[in-house]
Amino acid sequence: MGSYATGWLDDRCERDPHDPQALRPSSVKDYRSLLANHIIPGLGRIPLAELKAADVDAWYRKLGARRIPRARAKAYGLLRTILNSAKNDPDVPLTENPAHIKGAGRVPRSTQIHPATLAELAVITEAMPDELRLAVQLGAWCALRYGEVFELRRKDLDAAAGVVLIRRAVVWTKGQVTNDRPKTSAGVRDVAIPPHLMPMVVDHLELHVEKRQDALLFSNRQGRNLRPSEFQPAWHAARAAAGRDDLKFHHLRHTGAVLAAQSGATLADLMGRLGHTTPAMAMIYQHTAADRDRLIADRLSQIALGSQPSTSHRGSESRATSRRTAHKLEQPSLLDA
Asked: Is the pLDDT of residue 251 over 80?
């Protein structure tokens, strides 16, 4: 098993970057670690023809005892992928994939993510250095990943059309910078910029970006991609100003997804905007306020009684809900849609 798994990974590393089965540098790093630390020590010496579901179950239980739920799920997912390849390889004596533990590749979220509210987003943006304020706004309103934001170049902003073109993402692996395609094929996308953000975009291009087309929108003093370690001091200070020490830059993506849902975006719309390939991935970014079900019930009664909530009532209702859920953005109800 260990020999086949190592060869499988080497094969994916040697493929042309445009091959659908080629791996990104960050994935290679993760997979090598999972093989070396979790898969090969437990299953590596078993001949593939003799590998049984009971072996996989016992290995999975032992990983559970180590209390590494995220690593265990990722290791199981990688094992299942490798064994699927082995099963379909005519030179490998494996007739079926013995890794079929239901739900083993998923990790329950350990903490509840509270997206930034609009008020918090405004405070954070204002507290950031001027040259980084647009990065925060793009991360939230366009729901971009850190690697996508900090690989953006002048040529990727179509100010006339109000669109940001996501064609690459920056990744740091073992100190090396890789400017690579986004995480998935769906990650290559055009994201419409909300019109209210365009004046900031134009000002940023004029004040902080060199005129050449390949100039980075956000760079360090050497003109290179801004590493997370270089960004974090300003980010930590800004989020502290908003009273959100728990907020990570990636959580701005949750904010953007919820704001898009509030605007009436369908699940398909969210998948396209976020660059996701499956509905399940987009659903990660769905958040519901704790008291939303009561609001839905109230509106159902209003419909039953033949009256619709007035605009002013909805406004006061929304303000009250906002006060009760200070750290949450509401997901629109079916009645709103």
From this structure: yes
Catalytic residue among 204, 251, 276, 287: 276
Q: If one looks up domain 118-258 in CATH, what number appears?
A: 1.10.443.10
Q: Which are the contacts of 322, defined by CB distance < 8 A and separation ≥ 6?
A: 117, 330
Per DSSP, the three-state class of 92 is: coil
Annotated catalytic residue 76: no
Catalytic residue among 145, 189, 254, 273: 145
Domain 2-87 shares a fold with domain 118-258: no
User: What is the C-alpha to C-alpha distance for residues 217 and 219, in angstroms, rounded to an integer?
Assistant: 7
- Between CA 168 and CA 147 the distance in angstroms is 8
Catalytic one of 114, 239, 285, 299: 285
In the block, which residue shows the tokens 């109230």?
Answer: 298
pLDDT band at 320 (very low <50, low <70, confident <90, very high): very low
End-to-end CA distance of the chain: 51
Please pick, among 153, 189, 251, 253, the residue that the annotation labels catalytic.
253
Distances (CA, A) of 86 to 2, 23, 83, 95, 196: 12, 18, 5, 9, 52
d(CA 248, CA 124): 12
Distance between CA atoms of residues 246 and 23, nearest Å: 32
Going by C-beta distance under 8 Å and a sequence separation of 6 or more, which residues neighbour residue 52?
98
**Contact between 292 and 331 (Cβ < 8 Å):** yes
| Residue 146 appears among annotated catalytic residues | no
Domain segments of the chain as ranges:
2-87, 118-258, 289-337
In the CATH hierarchy, which top-level class contains the domain 2-87? Answer: mainly alpha
Binned at pLDDT 50, 70 and 90, residue 111 comes out as low
What are the structure tokens assigned to 285, written together?
A: 């970014």
Annotated active-site residue 60? The verdict is no
Q: Which of 250, 294, 313, 319 is catalytic?
A: 250
Annotated catalytic, 250?
yes
Q: What is the pLDDT of residues 236-247, one digit of tens each?
A: 999 999 999 999
Q: Is 18 a catalytic residue?
A: no
Rg (C-alpha) for the chain, rounded Å, is 24
